[in-house]
């Protein structure tokens, strides 16, 4: 195969991700150039000093990330931490490719698409949120789960315990791990029986949420429980990776049972409780690992380059 240069990768990714259709908070694509061919790409969530160091150790020619540099509103001067990062890239002839929103919204390589797949969520659609198309994803579970069960599922997939806020007041009541319920000792199928001893009904009434005006033929109205169904169980889920906790209100407006994002703010708790949405803050970093990983793997298939995702641990 022909020698690959960074401009070629940038053009390819921008076209693939539809970057020209998206208004972002930072420059999309090539943020720092290198000279010469690209043989090895290291990818990661954020172009931190630790990720650059990992790229230098692996003799990479390019770093591919979701969170690059030059965010709107930040000081523009190349001083301090920003200088050290960019100097390390240039000194080692490493290019930086950064795709932020395009790598959240893309239908295949986006963080939301990849997270939905990882969690086994059945996607029903995507909405515009915060002025960006296809940023808020929604779908359903193949089988209803309690908040505790869904939290455990998220933890087992992402390797990180989510922070919960919402109508299930028994969630996480024990000091270690999740609250252990008698029902969890039963076989899986039996856990969904109507009898659930020792579980207090949450005190929060399901609010009368107006169905949104958006016409969506052929899609079941989410969050609508049939008579006799347990309203505490999670059937429909919205999700938006990263720091999108504010869209818990979008989940509430659509009548979704649960919402997953990365972070949590003080007010998220109250919105989740009062609107009856099971909210899971599953980690900004943890929810945004999979888009850039999928894109890097794809580039290694399309071009004569190798790719390695480096997971720099981040508790946030
Ligand atoms: Zn992010």
Question: Could you explain the architecture of this structure?
Answer:
This protein has helices at 6-16, 49-57, 80-91, 102-105, 111-119, 147-158, 248-253, 266-275, 284-287, 290-302, and strands at 29-32, 40-46, 62-67, 95-98, 122-129, 132-145, 163-165, 234-239, 258-261, 278-281, 306-309. By secondary structure, the protein is α/β, with parallel strands linked by helices. The chain folds into two domains: 6-100, Udp-n-acetylmuramoylalanyl-d-glutamate--2,6- Diaminopimelate Ligase, Chain: A, domain 1 (3-Layer(aba) Sandwich), CATH 3.40.1390.30; 107-283, Udp-n-acetylmuramoylalanyl-d-glutamate--2,6- Diaminopimelate Ligase, Chain: A, domain 1. The protein has a six-stranded mixed sheet. The chain binds zinc ion (ZN). Zinc ion (ZN) binds next to strand 3. Zinc ion (ZN) is lined by residues 66-67, 242-243, 284, 288.
Strand proportion, as a percent range, falls in: 15-25%
Main structural class: alpha/beta
The structural domain count equals: 2
Under the CATH scheme, which architecture of the largest domain would be assigned? 3-Layer(aba) Sandwich
Number of helices: 10
Parts with pLDDT < 50 across at least 5 consecutive residues: 174-229
Q: Quickly name the level 1 CATH class of the largest domain.
A: Alpha Beta
Output the strand order for the largest sheet: 5-6-8-9-10-7
Shape: elongated
Bound molecules: zinc ion
**CATH fold-level name of the largest domain:** Udp-n-acetylmuramoylalanyl-d-glutamate--2,6- Diaminopimelate Ligase, Chain: A, domain 1
CATH homologous superfamily grouping of the largest domain: NIF3 (NGG1p interacting factor 3)-like
Distance between the termini: 40 Å
Query: In percent, how helical is the residue content?
Result: 25-40%
Order of helices and strands: HEEHEHEHHEEHEEHEHEHHE
What is the β-strand count?
11
Arithmetic mean pLDDT: 86
Whole-number radius of gyration? 21 Å
The largest sheet is: 6 strands, mixed
């Amino acid at each position: 195969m022909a020698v690959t240069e960074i401009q070629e990768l940038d053009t390819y990714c921008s076209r693939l991700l539809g970057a020209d259709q998206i208004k972002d908070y930072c420059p999309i694509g090539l943020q720092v150039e290198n000279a010469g061919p690209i043989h090895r790409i290291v990818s990661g969530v954020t172009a931190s000093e630790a990720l650059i160091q990992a790229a230098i150790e692996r003799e990479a020619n390019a770093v591919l990330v979701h969170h690059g540099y030059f965010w709107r509103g930040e000081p523009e001067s190349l001083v301090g931490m920003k200088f050290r990062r960019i100097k390390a890239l240039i000194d080692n002839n490493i290019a930086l490719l950064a795709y932020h929103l395009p790598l959240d919204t893309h239908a295949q390589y986006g963080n939301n698409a990849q997270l939905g797949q990882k969690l086994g969520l059945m996607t029903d659609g995507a909405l515009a949120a915060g002025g960006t198309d296809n940023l808020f994803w929604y779908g359903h579970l193949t089988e209803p789960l309690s908040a505790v069960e869904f939290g455990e599922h998220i933890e087992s997939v992402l390797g990180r315990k989510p922070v919960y806020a919402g109508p299930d007041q028994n969630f996480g009541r024990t000091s270690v791990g999740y609250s252990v319920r008698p029902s969890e000792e039963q076989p899986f199928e039996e856990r969904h029986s109507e009898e659930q001893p020792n579980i207090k009904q949450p005190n929060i009434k399901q609010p009368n949420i107006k169905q949104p005006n958006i016409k969506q033929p052929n899609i079941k109205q989410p969050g609508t429980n049939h008579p006799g169904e347990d309203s505490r169980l999670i059937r429909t889920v919205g999700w938006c990776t990263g720091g999108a906790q504010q869209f818990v209100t979008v989940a509430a407006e659509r009548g979704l049972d649960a919402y997953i994002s990365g972070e949590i703010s003080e007010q998220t708790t109250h919105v989740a409780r009062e609107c009856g949405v099971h909210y899971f803050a599953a980690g900004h970093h943890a929810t945004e690992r999979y888009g850039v990983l999928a894109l890097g793997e794809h580039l290694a298939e399309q071009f004569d380059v190798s790719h390695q995702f480096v997971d720099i641990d981040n508790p946030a």
